[in-house]
Amino acid sequence: xxxxxxxxxxxxxxxxxxxxxxxxxxxxxxxxxxxxxxxxxxxxxxxxxxxxxxxxxxxxxxxxxxxxxxxxxxxxxxxxxxxxxxxxxxxxxxxxxxxxxxxxxxxxxxxxxxxxxxxxxxxxxxxxxxxxxxxxxxxxxxxxxxxxxxxxxxxxxxxxxxxxxxxxxxxxxxxxxxxxxxxxxxxxxxxxxxxxxxxxxxxxxxxxxxxxxxxxxxxxxxxxxxxxxxxx
Length: 232
Hints:
The chain has 232 residues and is mostly helical. Helix 5 runs parallel beside helix 6 (121-138). It has nine helices and no strands. It is 57% helix and 0% strand.
């Protein structure tokens, strides 16, 4: 009887293990299925297609050339595809490895602890997500950062260029990077200290928005006058 109970317990444990394995395999299959759907998205139509065309029209190859040269300067290596073009540049950055290396190099200590080298789609998208999180820690604002689909699915590559330029701006302004800068330099903090006499003198100066315009009047204005052939 004890042997039978032990055998039933072992059989029940095997069933639980098999069921857990089946659930794990099913979950993994679902992830792969949805990632394949994302990478093979149907062509847009209607309003979505018009918006996509406008986004693609904003893309600048001159700005791309600047970003390419700057990335190669920081990393000290050439990008995999040297030909200019939106889709060519997207292929260079699509796996997220170059962007993660760029951020780690500029920051000094790694912001992205682990860079995935695998070719699987969800691993590449994970690299991009880690780069986006690292950009927020680096000092970029939310409006400067692109979304994962903007790069991985080539939805908005002009925003990717803007993101790289913003990284360059922050690196040159607040992270001590001494190389070239392709973004707008961020203004330095310039706090002013006025003495009490200067502050008090400013209280007696009226700006034009307060209604005082130093003797200006409405002479010469024709507002409200009737329209005549000869102005008497």
